Every structure is written in structure tokens, then in C-alpha cells.
């Protein structure tokens, strides 16, 4: 298939790894595979062993000062980086890194070339930190290497590039993109184990559907991730909805939410015109 690049060209992901075979299938299937075929995304897997400069392809060594495990050498990482074209960002996966969020994904999606260093063993020599522009963490837990984190970032960022998703607006309503958790979705069957699709979704009233979805997104966020409300772009009507869902005025103040709209004054009924008396 002939690539159909976007006007800005593809977004290139370069991954420096000791196990490129872990990322190769992930980057070749489903939506990512189609995006690569169309020239929207490019994935470059760099095996750091190719830059070991020894016959055993050894890239690590024992840590100075002693301790368990092996450490990836800084000179190996530097040679692998030098083999690549200039990058907008060189990113190291690290537990000390900036938390990876949807906002970070949106920022990275606007770049042209991203390089990621995927560690193994006890990680990289600390001097590698001087070769990168940013450190990222996908959560407070420990994994065996950076490849799984790389796969998460690849999918989260690539899907934001124009043309990658079938519906250009589909990601804007996703959880975190809107600042809230996503509203619940339904499809066939209409009824399953005594649970029916909500009536509002079957009525065809698009304004009512939009209102219901916003209320449900607020309800889910309030009950499951209220911490997100501190940074969500809330409207006065959202504040009124949150109050009906159980939030308090102090909650709204703590989230920095705007005050709800003032209650509507009841309309006064017009007095009927006096009927002229008969003569």
C-alpha cells in the first residue's frame, strides 16, 4: 500500500530496547498497523545490543559500589541515540518521571519524532539522564522493563494524530480528554438480564442525550474519581448538577468550580383583562 502521509508528515516513534520483538507485534496490528501502512505513524525499533561494540553483545555491567542486578551502560545508550535523526523529545521511562497523563499524550502528539529509552535489569547508568529531555512514569509500580510502558504511550499518543482514528472527534469525549470520566455506553441487545438501555438514548432527542451524557460523566467522576474535578473545565450548570448528585457547596469551592446559576424566578401569571360590564 502506498503511504498517504498527513500534511505534517508521520509521527515517528523510536524505541531503544533490548527486546524489540516485544514491541514489534504491538506496533503492527489493528489501528496502529493501519496507521503505519497509511504513513500516519512510523515506529522504529532500535536494538541497543547493536551498539555494544563487543562480540558478546553485552550492554550492561555490575554497579559501582556493589549491589544486586546489572546496569545498562551509558556509552551504549549514547551510541544508539547518535544513530537516530534529531528528535523533538528523548524520553526515559523512570519511576522518578513525570506522571504520564492525557494532557502529556496530547502534547507529545504534536511532535514529529519521539525517542524512548526502555530500561531493563536495574535500569540505566544515571548519566543517561543527561542525554534525555524528559522522564516519564506510567504509575507507581515496578515492571521488568520499559517495553510495556512504551506500548501504553505509543497507543495513547498515536491515536491522537489526525487520521489515525476513523472518527476525528471520537477521542475528544474520552475519559480524561474532557477532564471527566466518560459517560456509560450501550448497544444491542436492548434488554439483557433485566437491564435495559436507558430510555433517553432511544428517544432520538439529541439535546436530551447530550444533557444525560454530561450528567452521567459528572456522576461517575464524582463517585469514582472526584480528584479529577479539581482540574475539569466545569460550567455553572455542571455545578448545579453536582449539587443534585450529592456534592456540597464546600466541595464546589474546593474544586474551584463556578457557582451554579441563580434559580429562575417563577413567572408571574398575567391577570385576565377585566371584562367590561354590561349596560
Automatic annotation (TrEMBL):
Keywords: Cytoplasm, Methyltransferase, S-adenosyl-L-methionine, Transferase, tRNA processing. CDD domains: TrmD-like (cd18080). InterPro entries: Alpha/beta_knot_MTases (IPR029028), tRNA_m1G_MeTrfase_C_sf (IPR023148), tRNA_m1G_MeTrfase_TrmD (IPR002649), tRNA_m1G_MTases_N (IPR029026), tRNA_MeTrfase_TRMD/TRM10 (IPR016009). Its EC number is 2.1.1.228. It catalyses: guanosine(37) in tRNA + S-adenosyl-L-methionine = N(1)-methylguanosine(37) in tRNA + S-adenosyl-L-homocysteine + H(+). S-adenosyl-L-methionine binds at residues 119, 138-143. Residues 228-279 are annotated as: Disordered. Coiled coil: none annotated. Residues 232-242 have a biased composition (Polar residues). It is found in: Cytoplasm. It comes from the Bacteria. It is an enzyme of class 2 (transferase). HAMAP family: TrmD. Belongs to the RNA methyltransferase TrmD family. PANTHER family: TRNA (GUANINE-N(1)-)-METHYLTRANSFERASE. Homodimer. Specifically methylates guanosine-37 in various tRNAs. This is tRNA (guanine-N(1)-)-methyltransferase. The lineage of its organism: Bacteria, Thermotogati, Deinococcota, Deinococci, Deinococcales.
